Amino acid sequence: MITLPNECYCIVFNNLRHNYKNLFSCALVNRQWCRIIIPILWSEPGHNFKDKRLIRTILLTLNAEEQALLIPFNICLPSHPKPLFEYASYITSVTNDLCYGIGSWLPYGDNKNWLSCERLYIRRNLENIIKCSLIAMFLRASKNLKYLYLDEIICNQVIFENLYKNTTVTSVDLYLTYSISDDFKSKAIDGLE
User: Which of 82, 83, 110, 136 has a CA-to-CA distance to 179 between 20 and 30 Å?
Assistant: First the structure.
């Protein structure tokens, strides 16, 4: 039996990169294939950020500093064991879909009036705190991060410091609404420059 070099497997599996279901099935064949496929599966999560299971898995990779950002808000992180792979290190782009995934991961609570303005305000704040922690983690952990979507809610000193340290990001979409002050816009742009 002739075995192919890993480079050949990489070429074959990269051709399946947008067929997640089949690629995932291939990852279950053996350890060699799994080690090749996991970086491909996790490189461009895109719309899969909307899946709360993906958010749960990524939350398991937060370090102590990133978890500390969540402690004052009583956010219960998943208690599963750490993943076998450092999934966040493979991610190449972080899109706005991250917000939707965080929203689906957060529980709505027992109160039937969760749609009240106050509860929506609290929920949005929780989503933004989690998003800030995850973006900080992506900037720290991802060896291949190229694209990042930011909005004014999460543009803060922690994000700017981590973005400054990151040498792989080549494109940032900074979404600033007209309702925020010009002073903040200039600070955000200065921080990114």
Answer: 136
